[in-house]
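Researcher: Go.
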Amino acid sequence: MTALTLGQIRWVAYALLIASAIPAGLAIPQFTKARRAPYYVMRREALRRATRRILAALLLQALGLVLLLVAPYLAALGSSPRPAPTSSPVDTLTPTPTLTSTPHPTRMPTATPTRRPTATPPLIPTPTSAVPLPDTALTPLPSAVPAGEDARIELWCLALGRDENGQPVEPGNEFPPGEYRIYLFFIYEGMQNGTMTTFAWYKDGEFIDFCSDTWTWGLVEGRNWGDDGWTSYYCKLPGGWQPGRYEIHAFIETRLHSIAQFMIVEE
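Model: Structure:
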């Protein structure tokens, strides 16, 4: 194999440094989107993409700088002369026959089947307080079917309403006390009719039975949402929303998938 010269190594390093500008440039519009996108889920995804591209740019720059630093050493190693092989004196004695062993055929290894990994739920924020799993989520529903491996629910945002296109109106995570609806928007994937689903609401760690619900996906009137998409539903507490910390936990069967948090605060 022909060794690289000092000039060639430096050209490779310069190419890596120039190439690092590509992911860095692609990260700029993603950072802009992460700050100006109208919805939290879009901002979070843009930030993830921008971070990955910045990391790729930094990696290319680091490789280029390392090559520039070690280029003289690599070139010196590649150009160092190899020692010439020394000839051994020829034995004039009659060589004694040596036994040669015939290799025996080895047994071909058999493939070991691996168990298919189960689906990993999305990132779940750590709740501020330990809350119990509602009893409704522990009681199997007669018409329920096992959830698919790729089924997931991600709570998207909370808002005070939704427009004619179903988009959130006045989204936020802090609201004043009063009698009004709070809409919960969420994204879902891989759902199928009959999957046991629970949305549990809590106030300061106490279960709110009025807002919470356990149902079989797709088998309840008005909730024929399909396998993939996004939608919302609302809750309006009798007597109005009182100051405190509220949490909403989304379960598929007994598996916690996502948590949303909001505060009711005095103005």
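Model: The chain has four helices and nine strands.
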